[in-house]
Design brief:
By secondary structure, this protein is an all-alpha fold. The chain is built from 20 helices and no strands. The relative contact order is 0.13.
Length: about 525
């Protein structure tokens, strides 16, 4: 199907697409936020066992996200490459959402087995649903400006899903459970699972895939076998970084240096191979790791997730122990999410007016500066914290909107440069680095509090650690925002450049009859 570079999407289609991320965030921003406390307080497994479970499964995301991206790229159906996965996976995701919050009456050991089974199932189903959903943005329109608007609608939906589940889960658990939290959580997830399936159906039926690649993909079976050989070059370095970050000793440091050196050598050797000696999946990976704009977007995704993840991760500690009123944390979250919905809806239009790079720099400077001002808030300055925090969040909400819009630009750039387009792979790797950034942000919060001697059951250590909570609410996350500005100053895909690439690709597609 031929389209023009300024192709506009209807309000109906953009809103329908947004419902898919509202569905995803019933799981990502909502269910997973309550899962840890469900494991320890309702299912009855230890905090240490729950922490190990969450860490082990999170590391596996690196494999599953990339595999799913490549599988989606090679999917052929009358409904397209990505839309069918949103529909097919929705019932399975809803089922595992319910199972993950089910507390069977079995031994402690079997409860842990049950937790592993249901959590792995939940994260796999989420990956199968959300990676194709993210990639769908890259093929709904060839216009980079329209993708910015679409990304804004997407994250407005995401924040709406977050408001629903984060704001109402505790009340629904109490209402359905009547003192029995196990039953309350399960019945609550029945409601959210049904809503999730309905929202995914809306996305499937209201959207269309319009951008087709000029290049064909290889055999899926052969490519998966080849991918199994190449994935360690991506996963092992991430594992070494994680080990060094968590343990920070000379052994993990040496392991990190060794892994990076070996990976650098192997990747350099792969890049220098003649194209005739590489498989389609190897060419996809080469396109990815030699795509400088994509690498910069990856860095931006990690830094902005650190910025936002630290801020969100310390809120409960800050209001509970520094302000002295834990109920304010929930109200603060609701304010942030409502502000985020408004910001997400206007972000795409501002990006069209100012350009993505300019808007991104403004968002980083403004949000970083406003976040730093929270260092001056006293425990009684509640209105000040809400106003400054809300203003900072307005600009911070532009960041994920721009990141996912720019991933589509990087896929366009790859197709323009190499004649190949692995949209699913580009978005899957970006999705994984966002997850990684969120995981590192949560770990950094605990590391800083630990450095101040924080022990949750010891009031004396809690009082001594409040200064660390203030730092984590203010200048520590701001450093990551300011650091991201350096990448944007040299980011090459400005609006004029993208207009040239779009026009060139349009001519190629028309010649190919796409």
């Amino acid at each position: 199907m031929s389209t023009t570079p300024n192709h506009k999407l209807s309000f109906f289609e953009k809103s329908g697409y947004a419902m898919g991320d509202a569905a995803a965030n019933l799981v990502w921003r909502g269910a997973l936020a309550y899962l840890a406390v469900f494991y320890t307080d309702t299912l009855g497994i230890s905090a240490a066992a729950a922490a190990a479970l969450l860490l082990v499964v999170r590391l596996s995301d690196g494999v599953t996200d990339i595999v799913m991206g490549m599988v989606a790229d090679r999917t052929k159906s009358r409904h397209g490459k990505f839309r069918p996965w949103i529909l097919w996976s929705a019932p399975v995701l809803g089922l595992f959402m319910i199972l993950a919050f089910t507390a069977p009456n079995v031994s402690t050991e079997m409860k842990l087995v049950w937790a592993y089974f249901t959590y792995i199932g939940l994260t796999l189903a989420y990956t199968v649903n959300n990676v194709p959903y993210s990639a769908l943005m890259g093929v709904m329109t060839p216009s980079h400006a329209e993708r910015s608007v679409l990304s804004g609608y997407r994250f407005a939906g995401a924040f709406l899903g977050g408001v629903l589940v984060m704001g109402f889960t505790p009340d629904m658990v109490q209402y359905f459970g009547q003192g029995d939290d196990a039953r309350g959580y399960q019945y609550t997830m029945y409601v959210f699972a049904a809503l999730l399936i309905g929202l995914c159906m809306i996305t499937f039926f209201s959207t269309r895939e319009r951008v087709q690649s000029l290049a064909s993909q290889g055999s899926l079976r052969k490519e998966l076998k080849d991918l199994a050989f190449n994935l360690p070059f991506i996963i092992v370095p991430l594992l070494s970084v994680s080990l060094f970050f968590y343990y920070r000793n000379v052994y993990t440091g040496l392991f990190f240096v060794l892994v990076i050196a070996v990976t650098w050598y192997a990747v350099d050797k792969l890049i220098k191979k003649p194209e005739s000696d590489t498989t389609p999946s190897q060419r996809d990976l080469i396109d990815l790791i030699t795509n400088k704009p994509w690498l910069m977007i990856l860095g931006l995704g990690f830094l902005t997730m650190m910025f936002n993840g630290i801020k969100y991760g310390v809120v409960a500690y800050y209001f509970s122990h520094y302000v002295g009123d834990v109920t304010l944390a929930g109200r603060y979250f609701i304010v942030l999410l409502i502000v985020s919905i408004i910001a997400a809806l206007v972000a795409g239009y501002l990006a069209r007016l100012l350009g993505k790079r300019t808007l991104f720099i403004i968002s980083l400077v403004a949000s970083g500066a406003l976040t730093s001002l929270l260092a001056f808030a006293g425990p009684d300055d509640i209105l000040y914290v809400f106003i400054i925090g809300g203003a900072a969040e307005f600009f911070a909400a532009f960041m994920p909107v721009l990141i996912f819009s720019m991933l589509g630009d990087a896929a366009d750039y790859s197709e323009w440069k190499h004649g190949r387009r692995a949209t699913g792979l580009f978005y899957s790797a970006g999705t994984f680095i966002q997850k990684t950034g969120g995981g590192f942000a949560g770990a950094l919060v605990l590391i800083v509090l630990g450095a101040y001697g924080y022990v949750g059951t010891d009031p004396e250590t809690i009082a001594a650690a409040t200064q660390g909570m203030i730092h984590l609410m203010s200048w520590i996350p701001a450093l990551f925002a300011f650091g991201a500005i350096a990448l944007l100053l040299v980011y090459p895909l400005h609006a004029e450049r993208m207009n040239e690439i779009e026009a060139d690709l349009q001519v190629r597609r028309e010649k190919a009859g796409l």
